[in-house]
User: What shape does this take?
Amino acid sequence: MSSVTSPLKRTPLYESHLLAHAKMVDFGGWEMPLNYGSQVDEHHQVRCHAGMFDVSHMLNVDIEGSNARAFLQVLVANNIDKLQVAGKALYSCMLNEAGGVIDDLIIYFLTESHFRIVVNAGTADKDVAWMKNIAATHNFNVTVAPRQDLAMIAIQGPNARAIVWHVWPHCQADTELLKPFSAFVAGDIMVARTGYTGEDGFEIVLPAVDAPAFWAALVAVGVAPVGLGARDTLRLEAGMNLYGNDMDETISPLNAGLAWTVDMKTERDFIGRQALIESDQQVSFFGLKLLERGVIRAHMKVVTSHGEGEVTSGTHSPTLGFSIAMARLPLAIVIGDTVEVDIRGKLMPAVVVKMPFVRHGKSLLS
Amino acid sequence: MNIPVTLKYTKSHEWIRLEADGSLTVGITDVAQEMLGDLVFVGDVKVGETLSAGDTAGVVESVKAASDIYAPVDGEVTEFNAALDSAPESLNGAPYDNWIFKFKPSNAADVANLLDAAAYQAVATAG
Assistant: This one.
């Protein structure tokens, strides 16, 4: 009776996960599958064949109105003018006035008066509130509409696209020629050639009511469901940041390896721009490869000849067979340097490497 | 829940086998490997060190997290199972067939204080 914790939210695929014996965990207020047995097997499945993820906890937000483009030019740090072809996608950070990352997101250009933003689950509520507030205070003629009626399934791996065409033959003609980071849209269906694994594949948005049947059709042709555990090792190998680990509201994108997503070349006055100019880049953000046996974890201290750094994400890489990490390091550190990671009181040598670690199933480390 | 009656146990989910020479062979239980998930590293085992019951004797790491393993009674760690260097996942597949370290108790009588299968089952079920 004294409990004030709200119940965990469930995606339209909740029952499908239970049916597949998923181990369910609380992830940002959502009851999500951590794994369906072996997290490592699920990881390899994606690298070698194909796997599917329920990413319906992430929120689609439709931005509609005559001012949609102008609104987004103020809202996010990347340059929306890179979006000129229908279906094209853009990865960007949404910053606060201090230049910290409110969220990282993908913006899809549907029409000149309709853009779609896919945001992280844990930040969705504050993102929508922020967007609405910016629209109101800057007098943009746009609507900000969360689409809780949509589900999202990612199918990733070298065989992922072929499997989708096998299950959904009618969509092959429209999606066969899709370039990476672009989408085909028809009504409430969106098929995007995007993902969070470093493999080819699609992220498919569809009405929530249709998600269980589509999922079951993929199961029927042997696609393994993949949980959040493998999603994390896959994205880390792919050198992709995780919001809340590698950056948050207190971290500038310039200090999180995301300078490539920030457009400082044009005069465009986006929120956070002035703060980024004033603070500039304070630290480097690189990959680490542990040279001895052990596992690097988030928040471990990194000791270097130029001062200390901090691990933001770390794991054992199932593809590579050793531990890898992302870390904020002193600016003077360069790729190829050897540093030491404090692993439970023991300083262990690691080499600073360029990310990604793995792409399309292959190690990129020399 | 697989808990062989021939073994002894700790609350911290180690299994212990008493050998004919009075030494102990120690591993982690099926419950432990299930909780940890895929194991990717076993090590830092303090071979040659004299430990008190409950002292950290080494570490097992899964993709998810690191977890200490403990000395079951007072005594000395005498050997680490080096086969785990290259195959830590064998603890997932067959937790009772793959030991982590061997141990020489200071007082043979202490072994009687370890949990039997029924007592461990109660601990494991309670979570």
Remarks:
- Chain A has a mean pLDDT of 96.
- The CA atoms of residues 196 and 208 of chain A lie 21 Å apart.
- The two ends of chain A are 58 Å apart (CA to CA).
